[in-house]
Design goal:
Shape: globular
Structural class: alpha+beta
Helix content: 40-55%
Strand content: 25-35%
CATH class: Alpha Beta
């Protein structure tokens, strides 16, 4: 069974992935792989408020708990995956990357990823 570090490294090596941050629901980094211009701790600190807002929307829309959120920005995507009640995965992706295949892989392996945390 792979380790958390191996999982983060594998995701980080995907074409177009600029950062991978595995964090607790409290915003503290569990493991990360980012480029030199990105601060994992600073990025992770903002994720819980995104998850909280998505959960609020889901509550009022009757959609259930957040599973995956894709946010498109001018210069790329942020993919936020709620892995468990304790852990969240943030993947920052370049705009030219194949986000569809990344989403497929994350969905396919969500259980395995969650079991590592």
């Amino acid at each position: 069974m792979p380790t958390i570090r191996e999982l983060v490294g594998t995701l980080a090596r995907r074409d177009g992935v600029e950062a991978v941050i595995l964090l607790g629901r409290d915003g503290l980094v569990i493991d990360s792989h980012t480029g030199p211009t990105l601060d994992a701790d600073h990025l992770a600190a903002h994720v819980p408020s995104l998850v909280s807002a998505a959960d609020e929307l889901a509550l009022h829309a009757g959609r259930g708990a957040l599973v995956t959120s894709v946010i498109e920005y001018e210069r790329g995507f942020a993919v936020v995956c709620a892995l468990s009640t304790e852990a969240v995965l943030l993947v920052l992706v370049h705009p030219s990357a194949n986000v569809g295949s990344l989403l497929f892989e994350l969905r396919r392996h969500r259980g395995n990823i969650a079991s590592l945390v």
